[in-house]
Design goal:
The chain is mainly beta. It is built from two helices and eight strands; from the N terminus they run ββββαβββαβ.
Length: 163
């Protein structure tokens, strides 16, 4: 007789789509493309002891505005992250630590912001696409602590967990 441990968790499926509002930004390789639709998400995959994610890079010390959790900026060498909307969980992970595993190392980083998975492609979001459902948008300090060569900074598959 098979042991049934309950229903599998529902997969996180797109909740909608967005496209560029207005003219967009010409000659911007990271910006939304005119007439292309981008998925939005209100969910993220279930968090476990080893949650798969994609590590991306951002600055928390620039003109994109202060962090959501404390309303302040962070030096680029400080290990801080923004989580996809579902994982950010309406600010419930604000100022909590997460452990990021990648490149054979790990680092503890503080959650200071949301990587918005529900909106994008507009002036408020700098014409960038919505964040994916499984993103940890990290400072340079996180990438350095993981020992990733600078030439490889940008996007990397990782695991993470709550600290």
């Amino acid at each position: 007789m098979a042991l049934h441990l309950g229903a599998e968790a529902k997969p996180c499926k797109p909740s909608g789509k967005v496209k560029v509002k207005g003219k967009g930004v010409p000659n911007c390789p990271d910006c939304c493309e005119k007439d292309k639709y981008y998925n939005t998400y209100t969910c993220s995959p279930k968090v476990s002891a080893q949650t798969k994610a994609v590590l991306t890079i951002t600055s928390f010390d620039d003109d994109k505005g202060p962090s959501t959790c404390e309303g302040k900026f962070y030096p680029d060498d400080t290990p801080v992250v923004a989580l996809s909307t579902g994982w950010f969980d309406k600010q419930k992970r604000c100022l909590k630590n997460v452990i990021i595993y990648g490149n054979g190392k790990n680092v503890t980083a503080k959650v200071v912001d949301e990587c918005d998975s529900t909106m994008g492609c507009d002036d408020e979001h700098f014409y960038l696409p919505p964040c994916g459902k499984n993103i940890l948008d990290a400072s340079r300090g996180v990438w350095k602590a993981l020992g990733v060569p600078k030439k490889d900074w940008g996007e990397m598959d990782i695991y993470w967990s709550d600290a």
